[in-house]
Amino acid sequence: MGSTQQSRRTNTRQRIQDIALELFAEQGYEKTSLREIAERLDVTKAALYYHFKTKEDILISLFQDLTRPIDELIAWGGTQPHTLETKQEILRRYSEAMTAATPLFRFMQENQATVRDLSIGESFKDRMLGMLDLIQDPNASMTNRVRCASALFTMHAGAFALRDVEGDPEEKREAILEVSIGLVSQAHLVTP
Predict the structure, then answer these.
(1) Residue 11 burial (10 A CB sphere; 0-12, 13-18, 19+)
(2) Which residues contact 77 (CB under 8 A, 6 or more apart)?
């Protein structure tokens, strides 16, 4: 019985996150109220407060849940040799993590000012710097640093820029990944 009750709480928490993210994407973070989230869920505000006290609490929980694979990737990458193969694998895994967190990345892209003002903005920046450290050689030339930063930027901007382009989503993801891996491979192979 205890696990059923825990499962129901987790499902409710997940439903709140899903509906909130949906509303944030539709209306923007600032224009969405806790009351609207509760109404869309068909629950009272008190029921919503049981799980989350503020919109920012919901957003932080979403961010933590959806970025956990990125944190795990950064931890894993930090234990691996700094080889081209490791860098390529990091980009492959990052691409998969981004796909799983597509709604969050879309929210972040469309609500940049809000993200910058909330704690998740700084946290995300730290993650990206951690990713950059994994794919960039410590003594890389400025050109190669730009290549590595561009590889990460390509993964983010490419997914956003191609979302309305007709075509298979997996084919788009693979093309973006191929370009990103090409940039990191070139940075790795070109001497400073």
Answers:
(1) exposed
(2) 86, 90, 131, 134
Question: Rg of the Cα trace of the chain?
Answer: 19
- What pLDDT, in 10s, does the model give residues 126-142? 889 999 999 999 899 99
First to last CA, the chain: 62
- Distances, alpha carbon 102 to alpha carbons 38, 70, 124, 169, in Å: 24, 13, 14, 12
Tens of pLDDT, residues 57-106: 998 898 888 788 999 999 999 999 999 999 999 999 999 988 888 777 77
Task: Give Cα separations from 148 to 77, 139, 141, 188 (angstroms).
Answer: 15, 13, 11, 9
Query: Residue 187, CB half-sphere, CA atoms under 13 Å: how many?
Result: 32
Compute the distance between CA of residue 148 and CA of residue 187 in angstroms, rounded to an integer.
7
pLDDT of residue 94: 94
Would you state the pLDDT for residue 101?
80
> What's the helix, strand, coil split of the chain in %, to 5?
80, 0, 20
Residue 41, amino acid = L
Q: Whole-prediction pTM value? A: 0.78
pLDDT of residue 136: 94
Give the chain's largest Cα–Cα span.
62
Q: How far apart are CA 49 and CA 51, in angstroms?
A: 5
